């Protein structure tokens, strides 16, 4: 296998192109959804693209200019974090700029980075991103964004690391899409972000950090394996039908079920999550009486009444926690597990979101990264994110991949399949023994392409 090392050949700071911004505030206060993320690491996501029909110098110039234009529409990302005398943490929109790295790895080819489905994710992807193991709190002193262009033998990879206390997945991919849109020569932004801070997530609560300084988090130091499991649209539809039809019930035709009560239908993604929860629990060799938890993010923008703008900038998500004993997960069928997830998703309405905000304000706290009891499974990202819309002018991405940030035993990231046909790629991270057992789990693998 080819070496995973890359050579960094240049580094510079990119500043926003002069532009009359829609943002009036020089300080944007972090919200109830932003603050807990200060103990997490920077988001690291990127796209593998075909070889561009440009020289290296022209490609570099195009990306630098496009990034500058994109930043002019996202001025907070060119700033720094700032803790005021009142204890509140703000984004200081001061145009300090972002880091841009150029790297070369001519020994790596598409065939090295997109191996057969039975192989683990190549370690080379980890070297395509900056700010490894960097906590979001570090945004007080380092840029909130770092972009790395890695030129390969027959392709390029554009990796983007963004402070997760400043953006969630929705805002991250809107910025990435805008970056690509500028590279395609657009003179206007098609999806401008909304920088309002007068929503329910705005808070007067102050988060106190351990020792008054940088927070500490842990994702564990156990050896991990990372692997992509691809689920075709047809396989997911089979799962959905199975999840919506318990063996103890009369089979339903999904179309009729939707007409009768749209909220009664378990979704495709909930069905897939149920399969993952049930399968990883089964191969984990856990005590039947132990409680296992499945965590999935809920975009709160449309759950609020009135709803937030779809392109509200910042973190606007909460975690939905579903719990059951190991015995319950294994004794009951897939439809029972899927319904457990489904009911909790349905219950996460405006009132639930607001209760979550009040609960955090009574006890401001940081999120902790890790699977400390070995019984937690977490789903992150979403197959609804427009990851494959990142055409920089010479073709759509061949693949979407992440770096090593925010990885621990039991976490999975959901990506849309590259075909855009409703397929889903799950990027699963597990300890070695559990991953090996999952690869041999017949119920799980029968749905994997």
Automatic annotation (TrEMBL):
UniProt KW keywords: Transferase
Keyword Acetylation part of the UniProt annotation: no
Domain of life: Eukaryota
Signal sequence segment: none
Pfam families: Transferase
GO function terms (MF aspect): transferase activity
Claim: Transferase is one of the keywords in the record: yes
UniProt xrefs under InterPro entries: CAT-like_dom_sf (IPR023213), Sec_Metabolite_Acyltrans (IPR051283)
PANTHER family: BAHD ACYLTRANSFERASE DCR, FAMILY REGULATORY PROTEIN, PUTATIVE (AFU_ORTHOLOGUE AFUA_3G14730)-RELATED
UniProt-recorded name of the protein: BAHD acyltransferase
Organism encoding this protein: Buddleja alternifolia
Lineage of source species: Eukaryota, Viridiplantae, Streptophyta, Embryophyta, Tracheophyta
């Amino acid at each position: 296998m080819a070496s995973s090392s890359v050579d960094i050949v240049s580094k510079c700071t990119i500043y926003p192109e002069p532009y009359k911004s829609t943002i009036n505030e020089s300080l944007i206060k972090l919200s109830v959804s932003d603050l807990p993320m200060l103990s997490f690491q920077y988001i690291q996501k990127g796209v593998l693209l075909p070889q561009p029909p440009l020289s290296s110098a022209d490609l570099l110039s195009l990306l630098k200019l496009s990034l500058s234009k994109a930043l002019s529409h996202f001025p907070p990302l060119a700033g720094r974090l700032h803790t005021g005398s009142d204890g509140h943490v703000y984004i200081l929109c001061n145009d300090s700029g972002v880091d841009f790295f150029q790297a070369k790895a001519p020994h790596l080819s598409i065939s090295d980075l997109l191996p057969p489905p039975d192989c683990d994710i190549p370690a080379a992807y980890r070297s395509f991103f900056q700010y490894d193991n960097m906590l979001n709190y570090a945004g007080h002193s380092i840029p909130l964004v770092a972009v790395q262009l890695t030129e390969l033998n027959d392709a390029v990879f554009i990796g983007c690391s963004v402070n997760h206390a400043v953006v969630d997945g929705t805002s991250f991919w809107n910025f990435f899409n805008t970056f690509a849109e500028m590279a395609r020569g657009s003179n206007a932004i098609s999806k401008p972000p909304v920088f309002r801070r007068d929503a329910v997530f705005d808070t007067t609560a102050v988060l106190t950090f351990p020792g008054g300084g940088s927070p500490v988090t842990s994702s564990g130091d156990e050896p991990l394996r990372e692997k992509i499991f691809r689920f075709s649209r047809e396989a997911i539809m089979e799962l959905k039908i199975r999840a919506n039809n318990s063996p103890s019930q009369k089979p339903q035709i999904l179309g009729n079920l939707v007409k009768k009560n749209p909220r009664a239908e378990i979704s495709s993604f909930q069905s897939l999550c149920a399969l993952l929860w049930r399968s990883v629990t089964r191969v984990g060799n856990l005590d039947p009486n132990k409680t296992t938890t499945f965590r999935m993010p809920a975009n709160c923008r449309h759950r609020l009444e009135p709803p937030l703008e779809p392109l509200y900038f910042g973190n606007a998500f909460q975690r939905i926690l579903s719990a059951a004993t190991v015995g319950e997960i294994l004794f009951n069928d897939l439809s029972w597990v899927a319904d457990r997830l489904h009911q909790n998703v349905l219950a996460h309405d405006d009132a639930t979101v607001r209760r979550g905000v009040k609960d955090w304000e009574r006890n401001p706290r940081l999120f902790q990264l890790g699977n400390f009891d070995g019984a937690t499974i977490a789903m992150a990202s979403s197959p609804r994110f427009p990851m494959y819309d990142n055409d920089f002018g010479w073709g759509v991405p061949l693949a979407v991949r992440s770096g090593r940030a925010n990885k621990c035993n039991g976490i999975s990231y959901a990506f849309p399949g590259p075909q855009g046909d409703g397929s889903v790629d799950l990027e699963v991270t597990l300890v070695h023994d559990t991953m090996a057992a999952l690869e041999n789990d017949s119920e799980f693998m029968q749905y994997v392409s």
